[in-house]
Amino acid sequence: MNCLFCEIVAGRIPSQKVYEDDQFLVFKDIAPQAPVHVLVIPKVHYANVTSLTQSDPQLVSGLFSVITKQASALGVDQSGFRVVTNTGREGGQSVDHVHFHVMGGRPMHWPPG
Ligand code: 5GP
Ligand code: ZN
After folding, report:
1. Assessment of whether the complete model's pTM goes beyond 0.85
2. Which residue segment(s) compose the domain that 56 sits in?
């Protein structure tokens, strides 16, 4: 399978890793939209949040544990942060390996574009 984020997990494409364990990888987004902007992914390939949740709900729980711990580690838990998972064409998903954007360090606006 030709998947950009699987290649990053395998280390064949470089990334700026901020956290890694046996199940998850957290790395800096290449085009940050906020002072803090990381991507949290499961190492196992799932195309999107629907597929992930249907296949491995326990992994979702672990994923949110990593997300919230990383928000603290990155210093945005008190100021506030945003978690986004774009899904599908109209959802704005451009990489088909499920990922959660964690963004903070500036005021966020609503509604998003
Ligand atoms: P999506 O548009 O699917 O919600 O998010 C994909 C994200 O992946 C984008 O924010 C984009 O900047 C980021 N991205 C795309 N290619 C790379 C890459 O090669 N390395 C890293 N670190 N981020 C990438
Ligand atoms: Zn993948």
Report:
1. yes
2. 4-104
